[in-house]
Amino acid sequence: MRSFEILYELRTMEYMSQEGYDKLVAELRHMESVELPQVREAIAEARDKGDLSENFEYHAAKREQSRLLGRIRFKQRILENARVIDTSLLGSDSVGLLSRVEMTNLANNSRMSYTIVSPHEANLREGKISIKSPIAQALLNKKAGDTVEVRVPAGTLRLRIESIQL
Predict the structure, then answer these.
(1) What SS3 class is residue 124?
(2) For the whole model, what pTM was predicted?
(3) What is the DSSP string of 15-62?
(4) Measured in Å, how far apart are the chain's first and last C-alpha atoms?
(5) Is 135 helix (H, G, I), strand (E, B) or coil?
């Protein structure tokens, strides 16, 4: 490989957990095997109704097909560049991808816990924040006991890292 090819590959790689990878694969398979055939069937039914120039159902189904194909291509590109992280190779002494970080907001002494994941796995309800988020960026490579300041839309947060787990 030439150096520019290696640089491009490093820039486009998507690191994620096995769980996140499996979830993306399942979503892609569902879109290809369930949703796409349904949309194609809706197009065929609408086409059978006659004049396509003023057929709202036909145009809506075609728009849905286009949207779905775009989502399929997006997920395929993510999976092409996906690299599943071997968690046995990760350390828990500092914050990194797939780390579960428990911290305290020093302004109000409230405790919170987040797992740092790839942007495609982020889900705040599950306590998973994107590695590209301001909080995760501030926490990266920090150790338990460290205090960080994070600029968020509501102002500046001062957080103390209580523990780091994998």
Answers:
(1) helix
(2) 0.74
(3) EE-HHHHHHHHHHHHHIIIIIHHHHHHHHHHHHTTS-STT-HHHHHHH
(4) 33
(5) helix
